[in-house]
Amino acid sequence: MYPDNQEELIEEVAQKYEDYHNPGLAKMLKFAGLGVEWTAEGCYIYDADGNPYLDCLGGYGVFSLGHRHPKVVEAVKAQLEKMPLASKLFFNKPLADLCEKLAEVAPGDLQYSFLCNSGTEAVEGALKIARKATGRRKFVSTMGGFHGKTMGALSATGRAKFKDAFLPLIEEFVHVPYDDIAAMQEVIDDDTAGVIIEPIQGEGGIIIPSDNYLIDLRQICTDKGALLIVDEVQTGLGRTGAMFAVNHYGVKPDIMTLAKALGGGVIPTGAFMATTDIWEKGFGDNPLVHTSTFGGNPLACQAALATIRVIQEEGLIENAKARGQQMLEGLKQVQQRHSQTLCSVRGRGLMIGVEFVQDDVGELVIAGLVKRGVIAAYTLNNPRVMRFEPPLIINEMQVNHAVNIFDEAVAETVEILASLE
Ligand code: PLP
User: Fold this and answer.
1) Are 342 and 355 in contact (CB under 8 A)?
2) Among the atoms of ligand 1, which is closest to the Cα of residue 145?
3) Residue to probe by mutation, ligand 1, list 120, 162, 197, 237, most atoms within 8 Å of CB
4) Rounded Cα–Cα distance for residues 413 and 416 (Å)
5) pLDDT at 380 over 90
6) Which atom of ligand 1 is nearest to the CA of 231?
7) What is the pLDDT of residue 421?
8) Which of 231, 283, 321, 388 is catalytic?
């Protein structure tokens, strides 16, 4: 099942990355010291030598059900035997069933869904429908926020490094500091179509806002007639210990975006949802105003339906809460032991960030984890923060193991740095 010689395989694959894909990325992956991933199951990824890695990154939120969850795989296989992609001329039953299911589990009055293939596409659709429904132009988003890298979503993303080479983007975007309600109050006005916000900033460094932030933001949007677009691409579907992160605050969004975990770690899929009123204004005069060839394909819809069923039937929200609490407490103890190196541990459910006092230390710790068979990574917009986002199926023993290995990797890093002084 595994190839004969992993070293040769790594060389071959890295060379092809270098010659045909992305030489810079080839260098980065080689530096990280990981080989070629070969197979995966549950909370583990196996390299081409069959070495297991406990997956504490979870595909940046994709593998909430772990890898190859049997119920998702089974649902997808059954659909594959019938009709994988849709003709788009007939009614598509898996699509209809999924839209009904999403309306059932979504917060507030989100009734209608458009299905797409990724997070950035979900954001594109959300922005378009907000403009059409309100007849307004302006958007507000937050510094450090991450909403994707296509032109519209990139306009919402709050990090210059990803944007500068592509200017001008959508110009009517204003960025304000996250968790600063006064700044929001100042910029939301009668021309604001929508405010796009992550309930917890993921790539910004696992930033959890103050308890009233989203509640007050909801009120300001209502007062000004601006739409509240909640980006649950990373936080959605149980990750934070609630089906959606806005549920922690009882906030009802006007529009919501989803992706990542929605496909159960098996088929890529995304969605944006909105209220009946917004949908009528958005699609009422032209049902084809926004379309996607592959969006809502039967394979993806079956994967998503099975995913929601598994989350509900296997108690994954409760597990995210309990294991998240265990992991948070464990990591806080590690922080206490290494308070010169770690300045903060924070999180909600199984979306946890560990902040280092210095740049570059995290890189060594991550290498130490990998060496010991545990995978984790930075947050994209804040390299000082390492995130733990394991599958929601993770058990007590695996959480303990991840925390102990993190402890060892930090201790080793501290020693290495001291020896260099
Ligand atoms: N929105 C949020 C909150 C995300 O975290 C991400 C990806 O990390 C995106 C949107 C973009 O999703 P994708 O990479 O599927 O385009």
Assistant:
1) yes
2) 3
3) 120
4) 5
5) no
6) 3
7) 77
8) 231
Q: Cα separation of 199 and 360, whole Å?
A: 28
Q: Which residues contact 100 (CB under 8 A, 6 or more apart)?
A: none
From residue 40, give the alpha-carbon distance in Å to each of 43, 46, 55, 254, 260.
Answer: 8, 6, 10, 37, 17
How far is Cα 193 from Cα 195, in angstroms, rounded to an integer? 7
Helix (H, G, I), strand (E, B) or coil at 333: helix
Residue 18, pLDDT > 90, answer yes
CB 112 within 8 A of CB 274: yes
- Quote the CA–CA distance of 410 and 172 in Å, as a whole number: 44
Taking Cα atoms as reference points, which of 39, 100, 40 lies closest to residue 65?
40
Task: Judge whether 30 counts as a catalytic residue.
Answer: no
Q: What are the E-state strand segments in 220-315?
A: 227-231, 255-258, 270-274
Q: The tokens 């402890």 sit on which residue?
A: 407
Residue 379 Cβ inside 6 Å of ligand 1? The answer reads no
Active-site option among 101, 138, 260, 321:
260
Residue pointed to by tokens 């929200």: 317
Whether 190 is catalytic: no
What is d(CA 324, CA 348) in angstroms, rounded to the nearest whole number? 7
Measured from the Cα of 148, ligand 1's closest atom is: 11
Label residue 218 exposed, middle or buried (CB < 10 Å: 0-12, 13-18, 19+).
buried
Query: Is residue 45 within 8 Å of residue 55, measured between CB atoms?
Result: yes
Q: Which of 222-236, 331-345, 367-381 is predicted least confidently?
A: 367-381
Q: Whose CA is nearest to atom 15 of ligand 1?
A: 119
Amino acid identity of residue 56, one-letter, is: C
Does the active-site annotation cover 231? yes
- Tokens 């992609």 label which residue? 85
pLDDT tens, 108-155?
999 999 999 999 999 999 999 999 999 999 999 999 999 999 999 999
| Tens of pLDDT, residues 236-286 | 999 999 999 999 999 999 999 999 999 999 999 999 999 999 999 999 999
pLDDT at 2: 86
